[in-house]
Amino acid sequence: MTRLSSDEIRIALIGAAVVAAAATLPLFDQGYYLSLALNIVLYAALCTAWTLFSGPTHYISLATAAFFGLGTYAVALGLDYLPYPLLVIIGAAVAAILAGLVGAATLRISGVYFVIFTLGLAELVRQIVSWLQTKLSTRMGLYVFTDFTEQHIYWMLLALTVVVFVTGWLINRSRLGFAMQIIGNDETVARHVGIDTAKLKIILFMISGAFIGMAGAILAPRYAYVEPPSAFNPMISFLVVIMALLGGTRRLWGPLVGVIPFTIVMDIVSVRFPNDTSIVIGLSFLLIVYLLPDGVTGRLEQLRARMKHKRVEAEPAALKEPA
Amino acid sequence: METLVTGILLGGTYALIALGLTLQYGVARIMNLATGETLVAACFIAFWLFASYQVSPLWGLFIIAPIAFVINWAIYTYLLRPLVDRARNAGMLEVDSILATFGLLFLFQGLMLRSFGGAYTSYTFLAERFEIFGGFYGLNRVVAFVAACLIAVALYLFLYKTRYGTAVRAVAVNPNSANLVGIDVASAAALAFALGGALTACGGTLLSTYYTFNASMGVVFTMKALIIVIMGGVGDVRGAVLAALILGIAETAVARLIDPGLTLAATYALFTLVLLFRPQGIFGRQQT
Amino acid sequence: MFRRHMMTLAVSAVALAVTTGFAAAQDTLKIGASAPKTGPLAGGAAVTHWPNVKLWIQDVNNRGGLKVGNKQMKLELVEYDDKTSGEEAVKNIQRLATVDKVDFIVTPYSTGLNVATAPLIARYGYPHITTSAATDNVAEFAKRWPNSFWLLGTSKQLAEGVADALVKLRNSGAIGKRVALVNVADAFGLELLNAGKPALQKAGFDIVYEASYPLGTQDVAPIISAAKAANPDAFVAFSYPPDTFALTEQAQIQKFDVGAFYVGVGTAFPGYAGRFKDNANGVMGVGGINPDSKAIQEYRKKHKEVTGADPDSWASAVTYAGLQILEQAIERAGTTDKAAVIAEIKKKPFTTVVGEISLADNINHNVWSVGQWQNGSFNGVASKGVDGAKAPVKKEAWK
Fold this sequence. Notes:
The complex is a heterotrimer.
Chain A: H1 6-23, H2 25-28, H3 32-57, H4 64-78, H5 84-106, H6 111-136, E1 142-143, H7 150-173, H8 175-185, H9 187-192, H10 197-223, E2 225-226, H11 228-231, H12 234-247, H13 254-272, H14 277-291, H15 295-320
Antiparallel strand pairs in A: 1-2
Helix pairs in contact in A: 3-7, 3-10, 3-12, 3-13, 4-5, 4-6, 4-10, 5-10, 7-8, 7-10, 12-13, 12-14, 12-15
Chain B: H1 2-26, H2 35-53, H3 57-86, H4 90-116, E1 129-132, E2 135-138, H5 139-161, H6 163-173, H7 175-180, H8 185-207, H9 218-232, H10 237-258, H11 263-277
Antiparallel strand pairs in B: 1-2
Chain C: H1 2-27, E1 28-35, H2 42-48, H3 50-62, E2 66-68, E3 71-81, H4 86-98, E4 104-105, H5 111-124, E5 128-130, H6 138-144, E6 148-150, H7 155-171, E7 178-184, H8 187-202, E8 206-213, H9 221-229, E9 234-238, H10 241-253, E10 260-263, H11 270-276, E11 283-286, H12 294-307, H13 315-333, H14 338-347, E12 350-352, E13 355-357, E14 367-374, E15 377-384
Parallel strand pairs in C: 1-3, 1-4, 5-6, 7-8, 7-9, 9-10, 10-11
Antiparallel strand pairs in C: 2-3, 11-14, 12-13, 14-15
Helix pairs in contact in C: 3-12, 3-13, 4-5, 7-8, 13-14
């Protein structure tokens, strides 16, 4: 393993400090602000997991809701029979399997088909789960009663987010990450160099899906009553895409920059203008496409690069002056 | 037999939805995710015309289609052209157009929610019995099917028998080569997008005569339209119609003979098969 | 000079603010409400839930507010849209309880949303009087959340009511033994099916066709044609509003004539009779009202006047009744203390628009199960413990 650079150590320490601070929140507030923070951490985990795959490949996955719902359902179905931690792992595994299947079917061809396929995937999974529930059991909704409180779920999500970040960082440093960089730059070149692009994309998709499934499993106790329409709610997919793109997917921590402000804005809008949340979402998408194609972090980096460029340009002139 | 006729009628419905999108995606290269919202908006306008002014939806077609044409032309020229111009390759344009039309999707949905509320709306028009080969079907469905056929034929004549239509098809096949032979690609694309929007709006108007709709329904229609367009071969009108009929019959057969709970699964199964074995669709060309 | 004027202005402004604030705090009771204004259930909530909340608040404020102890307190409404999402609903309740600090919370709308928010409402100790949740788990819920009250009945009661109504029709010679049974594949539809099927079989009916379809299905033509092919005497569909309407229309188009036609939720909506006019006569569905009750007649008149729309004939009146119970319990307790109000709700019965309701064990045992459109009124034809049922009539052929 290569040694960590001082930059990376610094980022790691800052990250650890932020996480520690965030973890103390439940001690200060147990009500509304904890709920808000929980949503922020949830989407931080989801968006970062989403970016693990969609960042390097530029494939927009709308399958988040499908993976999330599967995780929720794994817990809801199995809570009477298996211990909770095991169910979280099962949820992740089931999501990963679905990701593998979807990837195998669609990642070998153009990215557009992938987007379309994943658009309807949540609906499809919802229908199948509903059908299975109808045939195999006598009820549709499942009750998830545990002793977990909001605090516990908040901490679990925080832990999950940390794991996702660490995984992303490890991937970037590994051969998989290196290969993904090449694929991201020019897929034809990558293939010519001997990289099995399809297989790598599928693996990455499965990792991403597994984390999303885990998030769904962790959230199950909070819902108390799990029904297909709410577990497989397509809005989850759309919101994850907006926040991740808003923040920028070039960096692993890019999505965070999108998650925090967007969640807060959405909360304010839901309260003040409850009928207009769709309009806000629509405008956000348009904003991203026209003004922030690489997200806020992308734009910031562009500005930074331009300023550096100007400084570099100015130097030779300064050197010339005295002469 | 009844299943077959019901399936064909359903397929006619789907064909309407898909025809517009195949033009927009095939010629203008815009993956229009807001197509379902155009459809639902047309449903609401048709309802409003019928409920407030007693205008029959069949006449409403002549009001709604031109309005949709103009609005879609404006959307293409002012919102989507900048993306086309700025895209460095087809892939980027696809991603950008997906995101932009996604934004439009929510914007339209939000506007419709404000104007019409979230409730289910429907109205009764020609909900009488019509007999075909001994089975009873809704007259409204049959009329919608016939109207859809007429529109499809008109479109076919335009695309295959007129010069301008042939130019549009040329742009669908290869925009660069079309440019080389002197076709104004930009205006052909704008026309195709606008025409596609008008077609989708016609579909919505006819659909509103027998569907119960609400402001949030667009996504389901978009999804089905996308699947049909890809199955039929992007940009090919005949392919879209054929794929729509196949889908309609398949769904009805599954609902009747296997289980009504598996219709979406059947659609997806078909879609997956096409993606795996013939990704260019029924009438499409192999992508280089 | 100027400064003196400013001082006077400032002092009076402060004084005004303090007194009005003080006065406001003394005279208003904050009522929180979270229910769908958008999303799949927005339509149902717009008919059954929000108009009743509006009507109740207006009624109470028009007579000077609630008498709490020796104070007259007017009601102030704080409302949020839960977008038919459990997650959103939970957030709204959090907000109402901890940020808006409301005195009481109106029940959310629909079974799913009530169950999703029940644990949180229980944690904050508010009385939770549900009026739009019909589920078989009421006993378990009442035990788990002793602050919750369940007024709409259980799926079992509703489904058994169907069997009761069909038996009455069979005894009067209107129909035979063959029943076609379909249901929407969602929580409520499934519960109804699981109670309804054995009830029908025990009553001596043969299920000659059975199918379930996903929520949101628009194309019900294959279902109706398959049911018709089985040649039944009665058609029972445990359906939701969109499919209720679609099934009825298809049955009419395909000339699916049976002596008994039952479609589930949505039949009781005024829009149903509005859409099908004469063809609605004879159709049965969930709910029902007692058209001869003075209280109901007055309620329906007031509802139309104040909200501009007719109430439905199932949960609307029950929702208003639930609000009446809250109002009377607060007045009886003489305090806004939540625990005291909860205790009052269990003590003695209440007089409401749907008659007398007793919640000694947190559950209302007397509900209308089946109603039938008879000459423009959706009359109750089967019930558990409620008087005033009319006899069901045979369904005539579709026009």
